[in-house]
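Researcher: Here's my situation. A collaborator sent me these components and asked whether they could plausibly form a single complex. I don't have experimental data yet, so a predicted model of the whole assembly would be a useful starting point for our discussion.
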Amino acid sequence: MTAMSNKLLQNVIIKGTKQGLTLHLDDSCSFQMLMQELDAKLSANIRTQENSPLIKVRVHTGNRYVDEKQEAELKELILKKKIFQIEEIKSNVITLEEAKRMKEESEMTSVCAIIRSGQVIEVPGDLLLIGDVNPGGQVSAGGSIFVLGTLKGIAHAGKHGKLEAVVTASVLKPSLLKIGDIINPTPENFMQEAHEMECAYVEDGQIIIDKLQVLKRKRPHLHKFEGGF
Amino acid sequence: MGEAIVITSGKGGVGKTTTSANLGTSLAILGKKVCLVDTDIGLRNLDVVMGLENRIIYDLVDVVEGRCKLHQALVKDKRFDDLLYLLPAAQTSDKNAVTPAQMKQLIDGLKQDYDYIIIDCPAGIEQGYKNAVAGADKAIVVTTPEVSAVRDADRIIGLLEKEENVEPPKLVINRIRSHMVKSGEMLDIDDITSHLSIDLIGIVADDDQVIKASNQGEPIALDPNNRASIAYRNIARRILGESVPLKPLDEEPKGFVAKIKKFFGVRA
């Protein structure tokens, strides 16, 4: 019994760093044991100082996959102590679905078609459209949208909230432009002056339309030689 | 084995029925055996435009429901010697009286006996449209130089491209008014074709005579001198595979009097 509890006590290792505490959680014991030990260790280490700032905590779960319910339990346990603030909960593993989604979201899908009125194209990652989007047509992507043609319909980039996403087109005259949940407030602007090769990106919570060349500065992450994942 | 061509547009009132009647007539003039099929069940018009209204005994729904034989329902156009027939739509039912499978079977039956089957499609993209395209091999999209008509044509082209049995559609631009195009008040042909990006098979000028002829039940294509008639006949020749150049729109009226009229700004 003592041997076992000795071993138990090594399931949670607390390290202090400049940024705060890092909790290394062992990944081979049961989650229940881990929680018990964590509770005990955090309680033992409390030095109650009034008005001291919250201690930042990073949690590393190693090769253990922590599902949403367990993550909530973990958070509850740590926050219950009232002196901690959770910075991040990190794990070395992700589920297959998450991995697939991340891969899909970082991939570029190229479509060679004219998106006509009433048609909808939806891709998980970036969209490269070789063709036009006619009025009444709709393109949406988890990432950015690049149109080699005229964009006159609806474009929705970063549909899961990715605000770094951009929309570019050879002729950018969309009837509606959305990046994340931001909707372009003044679509009338497009009609007045139509340059060739324009892009749209989000800055300070607003959609900005500018010439394509500014993207090199504004969105350097677009520059990549190999896949993002 | 004949060819079935559906005439469609999405929007109503752009001239599907007029185009169907005149293409059918033009193909018959060129010596082809043609059957016109009106699929606008409940709102039939093609018989009126062809002047065959009071000779209808049975209709498309009667054929589909087995109340008569196919050949009994076909109305022969006596102006042509056994070349032009019309299968009229029913006026008393609605579009749901027929299924796409039944239409396909019907059109396949007609293809045995006719060179060309021209299917007049109703407006809209619902049941009537689905019935009309079910048996078609080719499609002609009719539009007018109006933004709303072009928008609907775009929609319908998108739907037609999904049909596996139908070849990429061809475009007819109907009711072009050259003076409005010239003054920039109307969409011009380049705007429309670059927007829709499908092949153009004909341009028909807006002409009062077309309306007059339709009201009289004499398709304009029967008049050899009318410019709309010539446009329809040219489309028919293009369907037959002839390469007829697309006439520039602003064809100047020839002759001395016309030149004088033009000089004084009188429109022909």
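Model: Some features of this prediction you could bring to your collaborator: Strands of chain B lie at 3-8, 34-38, 75-76, 84-87, 116-120, 138-143, 170-176, 200-205. The first helix of chain B runs from residue 16 to 29.
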